[in-house]
Every structure is written in structure tokens, then in C-alpha cells.
Amino acid sequence: MTTVGLALVKEVAVAAHAPRFLYLRWPFGHALGEPGNVAQQRTVLHDMLSMATSAQRPGLVIQLPYRWRRETYPPVGDWNTPSQVVVSALGGMKETT
Amino acid sequence: MEKGEATKLRTHHKPLMPSDEEARTQLNKPGRTLAGRLYEFFGRWITLPGTRGETVSAHDGPARTMAGRLNELFARWISGTELGATVGHWASRTIALPQLRRLVGADIPWAPLGKPISECSVVLVSTGGVHLHSDRPFNLNSDSTFRVIPKNAQAGDLAISHQAYDRTDALKDINLVFPIERLRELEAERVIGRLAEDHYGFGLSGSAAQLMPSIKEVARRISQSHVDLALLVPA
């Protein structure tokens, strides 16, 4: 079974040795974002699904670039295409390793 | 509490937040002994060991399990301020890292998805203290058990029993810690193949070793239900 986790504390995600983690610099109790912000919550879920399909090796902890309360979230266009945020973060990791 | 009593209490108090008196009545029913009264007095401020942690529902959303006033203030500070967040991150690292280093092996498990998302069965696992309101609340100080939450649970059927983060926003929108409504939408839109029948909630726990039997049991149940993808959401 494939797993993807969200994390709010990066070091704990790294130490957990889980297959796939997305790390957000957001306050505790707000892993999916702000109350009522459906587009934001769907963006995070799209990123999770993208991580499930696109990560090529175990143990990756990717930081999502969204700033707390300072972003606008356009609707997810195509759910079958992995999110650009995750794809470029994974691409960056390939270069550094 | 009988339904009639609940209605009576609510008509006497502010509709959104339970009053101190209501919270006290909800927390423990100490009787008239001195020990009971002391427990009641201190329990107002700190979540004492053995607190029953009963949930209080005063609106259509999820119910809140009452923690001590100081615990609530601390949680608000952790979730709502820069300094609080720094302390919260430090506490998480201090508590979790040594335990994880002891428990976790060098190998990282790896199970790539064998099919497109639109054919996958998806399960949600949250550590935000979410459970059915009708179920036994988590012990607020530490609890290594888990709760099953059916896929069709509505926000008003749920409760949050956790004292290490400010639940105010999650009580307004349960999807912040348990995005079940968003996943039901994705199932209806055929983005995901199927939403699993049962989802899983964990509470606050200070001991990773004590959590292991519950984690293994949840993993066993999830494997048995032919789930392809598990989404893990913290608080």
C-alpha cells in the first residue's frame, strides 16, 4: 500500500523514515490550510496525490512553498496531471543527489 | 447527560462556547467530597490525569473535548504565535526524535502505486484527535488507541479530543485535520477511484512504542480492506 504524509515539523518527518512526506510551514492544527478555503485544501490534496504517483524513491520529504495566509489558490485544473509544485520539487531533488 | 438536560443547559448559556459551569459539569462529576472538590478546582485549569474528557457540542459542527484552561491557552499560543510555534516545533522534536531513532529501522518501506489515482481506493489517517462524537473520547494527556470513522460521517457527527493544538479552526472546518469532505468530493468527481468505508483517527500520544500495536492493527485493517493509497494528516 502506498502512503503519503503531510508534516508540520520537518525533522520529525525526516526521522520517521516514511516513504513520502510533504512538509508545510503552517501552524499546528492547519495541515490542510485555513478554514473554509476549499481551493487551498484541494491544492494540498492534489499535491499529496501527485506525490503518490511521482516520487521515484523512498524517504523524500518535500517542502511545499505555500506561505501562510499570503497565497491565492487557483482551482486545480487537471487532476490527472501531477502538480507543478511537486514535479519541480522532485526535479530539484534529483539534481542535488 | 439526558437530552432534556442538555437543552436546558444550552438555553441558559452562550450558544457557541460552553460556560465554565457547563464545562465543569461535563468534565467530572466529583460529588461533594473534599478530594472531589479539589479535583474539580484544579481540573478547571489543568487537564488532570484520569480526566474523562467529555465532549461538549453547542453547534452543528464537530464537538470539542474540554481541556484545562491553561492547556487551552497553551494550545492557542502554540498554534497562533511565532514564538509558540517555535516552542511547539522544539517540543515535537525533543519528544519524537529520540523515540523515532530507537524505533525506526534503516530501511524505508517502498510500495509504488500500481495504478492510476482514478482507480485507487483511498483511506484517511489523521492524528488530529478526531473521532465520532458517539465514540469514547481520547484521553487528552496521552492516548495510544485509535478510532474508526466511517466514510459518510458528517462534521456534526465528529468530535476532536486533543490538547496540543488550537482546535478553534478545525472545529469550524474539520477538513483542516481530517479532509473527509474534500475526499468525498474527489470520489464523486471520479478523481479517486473509491473512498474506503472506514477511516482512522489517533489522538495525542507521547509514546511511539505504545502506539505501535495500534499502528500495526490499523495497517492490518487497511491492508485487509484492499486500500491502495493512505493519506496521513497530522495536527
What does this structure look like?
With 97 residues, chain A is α/β, with parallel strands linked by helices. Chain A has helices at 10-15, 38-54, 84-96; strands at 2-7, 20-23, 60-63. Chain A has a 3-stranded parallel sheet. In chain A, β2 (20-23), α2 (38-54) and β3 form a beta-alpha-beta unit. The mean pLDDT of chain A is 94. Chain B folds into 2 domains: 3-56, no CATH class; 57-235, no CATH class. Helices cover 40% and strands 14% of the residues of chain B. Chain B has helices at 3-12, 20-27, 34-45, 69-80, 82-103, 168-172, 180-188, 208-224, and strands spanning 55-56, 63-65, 121-126, 130-132, 146-150, 158-160, 194-195, 198-202, 229-233. In chain B, strands 3, 5, 7, 8 and 9 form a 5-stranded mixed sheet that branches. In chain B, α4 packs across α5 (82-103). Classes of the chains: A alpha/beta (97), B alpha/beta (235). Chains A and B meet through β1, α1 and α2 of A and α4, α5, α6, α7 and β9 of B. β1 of chain A pairs parallel with β9 (229-233) of chain B, so a sheet runs across the interface.
Shape of chain B: globular
For the largest beta-sheet of chain B, the strand count, sense and barrel status come to: 5 strands, mixed
Give the number of domains of chain B.
2
Q: Using the alpha-carbon principal axes, give the shape of chain A.
A: globular
Strand content of chain A: 5-15%
Helix share of residues of chain A?
25-40%
- How far from one another are the termini of chain A? 26 Å
Sheet bearing the most strands of chain A, described? Answer: 3 strands, parallel
Helix content of chain B: 40-55%
Described by its quaternary structure, the protein is heterodimer
Strand line-up of the largest beta sheet of chain A? 1-2-3
* Average of pLDDT of chain B: 87
Order of helices and strands of chain A: EHEHEH
Helix count from the secondary structure assignment of chain A: 3
Number of strands of chain A: 3
List keywords for this structure.
heterodimer, A: 97 residues, alpha/beta, three-stranded parallel β-sheet, globular, B: 235 residues, 2 domains, five-stranded mixed β-sheet, four-stranded mixed β-sheet, 8 helices, 9 strands, 40% helix, disordered N terminus
